Automatic annotation (TrEMBL):
Name listed for the protein in its UniProt record: Catechol 2,3-dioxygenase-like lactoylglutathione lyase family enzyme
Organism: Microlunatus capsulatus
Residues annotated as transmembrane: none
InterPro entries membership: Glyas_Bleomycin-R_OHBP_Dase, Glyas_Fos-R_dOase_dom, VOC_core
PANTHER family with a match to the protein in the record: GLYOXALASE/BLEOMYCIN RESISTANCE PROTEIN/DIOXYGENASE (PTHR36437), GLYOXALASE_BLEOMYCIN RESISTANCE PROTEIN_DIOXYGENASE (PTHR36437:SF2)
Residue intervals of the VOC domain: 6-118
Superkingdom classification of source: Bacteria
Lineage of the organism: Bacteria, Bacillati, Actinomycetota, Actinomycetes, Propionibacteriales
Pfam families: Glyoxalase (PF00903)
Amino acid sequence: MTTTTRLLSVAVRVADQDRAIAFYVDVLGCTLRTDVELWPGGRWVEVVPPGSPVAIVLLTEAGGMPVAPRFGTADAEAAHARLVAAGVDVGEVLRMEVAPPMLSLRDPDGNALVLIEDPPA
């Protein structure tokens, strides 16, 4: 079994999400897919290039979400166990009402990555 199933999104740190939306949508031609406040100050903004299943997530530092590529995984708990067994720097599985189970980890160079459990088939 593989740990990842697909690339979901790539995050970009921005200073102003509204200004970033204007650039990515009006200048680059992306479509605004998601714009929601998950918690006070935690705004999740996704834009998608035409024809792409992979989103670009526009995040501010103040929002508190990791700026990292997000991958799908079939089972967050199983992925966590495999990563721990492999000696990876990995956090606990996070469970929230507004999102599927997910976990953050770091690659050998210290880059942040996020695994998000795929929805049931």
